[in-house]
Design goal:
There is one protein chain. With about 775 residues, the chain is mostly beta strands. The strands form five sheets. The protein has a 24-stranded antiparallel beta barrel. Strand 6 and strand 7 form a beta hairpin. It is globular.
Length: about 775
């Protein structure tokens, strides 16, 4: 497709009445992606798209023919597709077939944007500033879009050649189309784009954006007086050139980030949380390569604990998180396909206050010094479908504290026709331990090969992790000293049949061995079926399990994982049903069970989630899950006499409600509520034997029963009053109760009443204003 330059002022109003549109080339004849891959769009639902450009932006005009009464147009928050028709454009400024910028708008006028790569898929945490308008007509609907060059990355050549694809979803038929055909026989979307030519000699404006913000927080609970707090800061986005961008935050404020879904954790590993802070989720595709970065480490828990003498105690609870002072990231790609990324963050010195119980004197001890977190990435792409990457993560703490450095070399190679893939990595970690602890180094390497096209596909590979591999200062890793082997294969239909819109069956086999003893510490084999009916209801069912006894080296919590616990054979059948979300009422159902060999040990439960769309503006989703673990085994304690493993019954309830009322495409109210309740009641305690078996200890009498409740409620209002500018108002209350060593109260009503009374609730009311300033607007 070829575009043309225009000096005419274009108003984004979905009228397409400017002279520039009349002479523009038309892209049409869209081809179905799913369900009937390769079928040409029908005449009554044809699509016509035009593209023009000037020195500020490219403009897209689309006419989408359809019966206006069948066009779905549910209003939602940004980046939520919900139940609506969509039109979108995919642009790749380097035409390298590997990284796309995608801009979509629904028939209700709601914007979605993302960065797409084959390795990570669509990353909707990335947000750009662009303009769009939608109009429903008597022949269908019309979209007009303005995408500034500031939202894109491209080379500095006088004549530009971009990768291009255009997308349309007809929601009531659950049909998806693209202008340049995407063949589902090939596992590479980005490499199947068309070409956009005609952009020449553009004089792009300075890409400098300032986003100052101001926030006010009002905090209250039963233990303290209501207090207010003002915060302010600045985000900066600067285009170093048309390919590289700098993002920086000064005095960050993440007080309105979504709450963490905390659970009762009785296992040997920490709970991993999602990253909810926008700076660390937006545009991080380069930094996520190799899975070395877990950004929750930045501003997370202190790396050490205070040392208390026998006559000392904490004057107040020590800090559980470290404040972030500032952060920046630079990322982009050269004309030759070399991607460069730098992420740097600095966290504040943090101390614990300690009091002497005899003299009353107080002191403070540093539990986390001033620290610098850095990530450096080089990613060379070639042949439009392959890459070689180098990554380094580094944590440097001031003074005599632990420092860490991890480096990795990755490769992802595909044949010219995208039929086979060879990928792998080698990662090396070095820990400079503090005080008298020795320095340590370790490695982690893997190799994978597979067929990635056709109805039948397969893959196999393995991984080796050494004993001293450790990337936990800026990443997350639970296990070491093991190696794995895996094999999987699958079959799928590429076009609908008389009974199914889609059908997929896959089988996977995974084995994991302890490096030191050769013992099998994990095995999982599964067979899964996934089906979409002609009514677009989804059915999934299958089973997974292990026909072998395995050995758990981590649950006993011994130094260097020297001891192990025997894990019996098990099997887990499952089924999942999800009805078509096009209907006002829809439901997801997932019963499940796991049965272990012997001792009446099993897990059983279900997940159910009904949803109802009252209007295009208002909808509610309820989620409930129940899980019961009968005769569950887990670590209890240890002393000079040995390691104690408890047999316990665990019960877990989770209730969640999410709702939205969307006034229009820039203003909405949102509700998010979650109650989590889990308790564990111990039946007996055993001594762990050297061979991994258990011997009943009838004299053990300490009560380890646990009763854990959490409550979170967020009610928010958001208004995008100008491009990139937002007012958000949030009321939040939360509570947590954790009782151990007591008789568990199993009554639901008393637990919830105890949790949400004013004695336990924390209340937070906050107002935040962010204003987007374009340097070019100030200059004018």
């Amino acid at each position: 497709m070829k575009t043309k330059f225009t000096s005419e002022k274009i108003t984004v109003d979905a009228k397409l009445d400017e002279e520039a549109w009349k002479n523009a080339e038309i892209a049409t004849n869209f081809v179905m992606v799913e369900p009937d891959n390769g079928t040409l769009e029908s005449t009554e639902r044809r699509t016509e798209v035009k593209i023009v450009y000037n020195n500020d932006a490219i403009y897209v005009g689309a006419i989408l023919y359809d019966n206006p009464n069948t066009i779905k147009r549910e209003l939602t928050i940004r980046d939520d597709f919900a139940t609506a028709d969509h039109f979108g454009i995919t642009l790749n400024g380097f035409n390298d077939g590997q990284q796309d910028f995608r801009f979509l708008v629904s028939a209700a006028g709601v914007q979605q944007d993302c960065v797409y790569t084959e390795s990570n898929g669509e990353d909707f945490s990335w947000n750009a500033i662009w303009d769009s308008h939608v109009e429903i007509t008597d022949f269908g609907w019309v979209v007009e879009m303005k995408i500034p060059y500031a939202a894109l990355r491209f080379s500095s050549e006088e004549k530009q050649t971009w990768g291009l694809n255009l997308y349309r979803e007809v929601r009531h038929l659950r049909q998806k189309f693209t202008w340049n055909r995407i063949d589902n026989n090939i596992n590479n979307e980005a490499n199947q784009a068309g070409i956009l030519e005609g952009i020449e000699n553009i004089e792009t404006p300075t890409r400098l954006f300032l986003i100052p913000y101001s926030s006010f927080y009002l905090n209250a609970n039963d233990d303290q007086k209501t207090k207010g707090e003002f915060k302010g800061g600045l985000d900066v986005k600067y285009g170093i050139n048309d390919a590289f961008t700098l993002d920086a935050i000064l005095v960050p404020d993440f007080g309105q980030a979504a709450f963490d879904k905390v659970e009762l954790n009785l296992g040997p590993f920490e709970q991993q949380f999602n990253e909810n802070r926008p700076f660390f989720t937006e545009g991080t595709e380069l930094f996520s390569k190799g899975f070395l970065l877990y950004t929750r480490r930045i501003g997370g828990r202190p790396s050490t604990r205070a040392t208390l003498n026998d006559d000392e105690e904490y004057e107040e609870n020590p800090p559980t998180k470290v404040d972030l002072l500032n952060a920046l990231k630079i990322s982009g790609r050269t004309k030759s396909g070399l991607g460069v990324g730098v992420l740097n963050a600095v966290t504040e010195k943090t101390s614990a206050k300690i009091r002497n119980t005899v003299t009353g004197e107080t002191r403070s001890e540093v539990i986390e010094p001033l620290a610098n977190y850095n990530v450096f990435v080089l990613d060379q792409r070639f042949r439009k479908n392959s890459s070689v990457s180098f990554l380094n993560t580094n944590v440097t703490r001031n003074g005599e504290f632990r420092d860490a450095n991890v480096s990795a070399l990755l490769f992802d190679l595909n044949t010219k026709k995208n039929t086979f893939n060879l990928s792998g990595d080698y990662k090396y970690s070095y820990i400079n331990e503090y005080q008298n602890n020795p320095n340590r180094s370790g490695y982690n390497t893997s190799l994978n090969f597979g067929e990635t096209s056709g109805k039948y596909r397969f893959a196999f590979g393995g991984q080796y992790v050494s004993t001293n591999w450790d990337n936990n200062d800026l990443g997350i890793n639970f296990q070491t000293h093991y190696h794995t082997l895996y094999f999987n294969h699958s079959y799928r239909i590429l076009n609908p049949t008389k009974k199914f819109n889609s059908f997929n069956v896959n089988s996977n086999y995974y084995s994991e061995f302890d490096n030191r003893t050769g013992r099998l510490q994990g095995f999982n084999g599964n067979l899964n079926f996934n089906i979409t009916s002609k009514q677009n209801d989804y059915y999934g069912f299958g089973f997974n399990g292990s026909p072998f006894e395995t050995y758990d080296f981590y649950e006993p919590r011994t130094e260097n994982e020297q001891r192990f616990l025997n894990v019996p054979k098990w099997i887990n059948p499952w089924i999942f049903f999800s009805s078509n979300y096009n209907r006002k009422f829809a439901i997801d159902i997932n019963p499940f069970a796991t049965f272990f060999d012997g001792d009446n040990r099993y897990n059983a439960g279900y997940y159910i989630s009904p949803r109802y769309r009252f209007t295009n503006k208002f909808s509610l989703i309820y989620e409930f899950s129940f899980n019961f673990l009968n005769n569950n085994l887990g670590y209890v304690n240890d002393d000079d006499n040995g390691i104690y493993i408890g047999k316990r019954d665990r019960t877990i309830y989770t209730n969640s409600i999410s709702g939205k009322y969307t006034v229009n495409n820039v203003m909405n109210f949102n509700l998010s509520l979650r109650h989590y309740w889990s308790f564990a009641v111990y039946d007996s305690v055993f001594n762990l034997q050297e061979d991994g078996s258990l011997l009943l200890n009838p004299s053990y009498s300490t009560n380890h029963d646990e009763n854990f409740n959490t409550w979170n409620l967020d009610l928010s209002y958001s208004w995008w009053f100008a491009p990139g500018s937002q007012i958000s108002v949030l009321y939040r209350n939360n509570a947590l109760t954790d009782a151990s060593g007591l008789t568990v109260d199993k009554d639901f009503s008393s637990n919830i009443n105890n949790l949400v009374n004013n004695k336990n609730l924390d209340h937070i009311f906050s107002v935040s204003i962010r204003y987007f300033i374009d340097y070019n607007s100030l200059k004018r």
